[in-house]
Amino acid sequence: MNSGTSFLRVIGSRLVAIAAIVTFSMSDTIWAQSEAPGVLQDNVLMRADSVTYDEDFGIVTASGHVEISHGENILFADTISYNRRDDIVIATGNVALLSAEDDVVFSNYMELTGDLKSGTIRGIQILFSDGSRAAGVSGRMTGDGRNEIRKAVYSPCELCPENYWKEPLWQIKSFNVIHDKSLKRIFYKDAFLEVFGVPVAYVPFFSHPDPSVVRKTGFLTPSIRSNGVLGLTYEQPFFLNIAPNRDATFAPIISFKEGVVLTGEYREVRKHGKYKLNGSITP
């Protein structure tokens, strides 16, 4: 599992790449599609420093600041080859795949279908739209919106800007993680909860909503904090979507100093105002 942790830390250093990607997208690089007319699929755009086309094998090879866009998916890499006959895209070197959900997948090697929606990924690293991160030894994407990560680690904690190699406050390690975009949930099998790199709990199965979920009944992402009053605490919120204008959140907190603290919050929005009621109790 050490490789997964290393990948998670590397994502922090790659946040700068997001800005670089956006800058590159706005650059004046000439579209390579005009240099190799008729060899790409419809609705596919490619640009790069250089492009070659092997007519015998039907392979388009682009190198140097390569960008391919298909629909709402955009793929960046140092080198990309596209096999027209098999409809396979192979990307190598500083690969980044931007999805319609604003998630970014990093790797040094991806083998994808021509629509950039399915394929295999070595050394996968994911930056979700809410800033949380996941990484694993390998990954597989399917056309139905399921992403599977093997030997994975996930954490919503931001990494220290001065030291990306420092262990996050807490993280979940799992032998198998599935992100089902249609269900908008992330599932873990054989998961270990670690605090400052130390395993503190094990569950055979665990799931929580993915970052795209705004309102849905179920368990929310747990949080681990440390303060002078309660010490080290673990909080597991449960969100109850009562109605479009009403909801409640129950969040038991386990603390090292005070034991169990039960907290809750009720919210309601009406035509002429909104209400919020919260409180806590120690059993």
From TrEMBL:
InterPro entries: LptD, OstA-like_N. It holds the Pfam family LptD_N. It comes from marine metagenome. The keyword Membrane applies. This is Organic solvent tolerance-like N-terminal domain-containing protein. GO terms for cellular component: cell outer membrane; transporter complex. Residues 47-119 form the Organic solvent tolerance-like N-terminal domain. Keywords: Cell outer membrane, Membrane.
